[in-house]
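Any chance you could type out some protein's one-letter sequence along with its backbone structure tokens so I can compare the two?
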Amino acid sequence: MGFAADPDGLGALVHRYELFNRSQLYSWVAASGRASVATGDFHRVEHLGGWKTLIPCDRLESAVVKYLRSRRPVYLARFDVEASRRAA
């Protein structure tokens, strides 16, 4: 929670801020206008859904890192595992 209290304290070390973690929104990131990503680790299939980050770049580690260090926009998309199961 340190970044929420003082986002400029270590801001030079951060390229992207977590806007979503699964379905939880960090409103202070949205309000700040900072470059963001949607994340969410999962350990069970039911945790796979939620907001994810789509990056328009080559599928190479170096390209992903370079893109995320830039200020270029990423695309945030919500994935719903239950809806996908019903559609199948």
